[in-house]
Amino acid sequence: xxxxxxxxxxxxxxxxxEAGIILGSGLGFFADEAIENPRSIxxxxxxxxxxxxVEGHKGQFVYGMLSxxxxxxxxxxxxxYEGYKMDQVVMPIRIMALLGVxxxxxTNAAGCINTTYKPGTLMALxxxxxxxxxxxxxxxxxxxxxxxxxDMSEVYSKRLRKLAAExxxxxxxHYAEGVYLAVTGPSYETPAEIKAFRTLGADAVGMSTVPExxxxxxxxxxxxxxSCITNLAAGMSDQPLTHxxxxxxxxxxxxxxxxxxxxxxxxx
Length: 268
Ligand code: HPA
What we know:
With about 270 residues, the chain is an alpha/beta fold. The chain has helices at about 1-10, 30-35, 85-100, 160-170, 190-200, 210-220, 245-250, 255-265, and strands at about 20-25, 35-40, 60-65, 70-75, 105-110, 120-130, 175-180, 205, 220-230. It is globular. It starts with a helix and ends with a helix.
């Protein structure tokens, strides 16, 4: 990680990012359109850095100013289901923390469990349930970043959720706050699993975000998570689930999603 950090510090030179942004499915364009004079650093150029393998994810950092705030965006993230070790999945977040990032905005696509949501709903994460069966903080503690047993009672900042709710008011989308449950994937869930997750208190289900949020919270970074609800979860419709549906919905609401994100980041 030290090599990767030093390479990034050399590339960024005097640029000190205040906020990190992880762009999920369909939001990659945000980095090129919302950031003034965006500059990029491909993951493949960074020593010891993982590469993204998912179609539709670009695989680079993009940095620059967003309404006067220096931001570092990830265009493409690392999922546990791709076969990465947890350490690799969260390495970008640890590097952000060491670069001095104070806020993390993390986005994703998620399946809808809450029956009052619909595809296209934008959901700010109020909390999460870690269903990954592992934790990214397992192993020696990074004492320079945070404590061995970090509190997780407010992983997703109330303050930032309030800003997100305000920013959503005039947008032509359904906005909600809810609990995100992370599974490893890559298979989608069964209808019985979705029923069980609903009973457990989950509103949405997805295959990312929780490792990054745990590591950011450990490092004292203020986190804001926003899901694009892309599909009814398994068993909630007669249609089989496909990645195409996920991409189509994410594309349909991408303008509102980008507006919401850029307002929250700039007001935060
Ligand atoms: N399940 C898990 N992950 C997802 C889904 C889903 O239904 N939709 C988008 N990501």
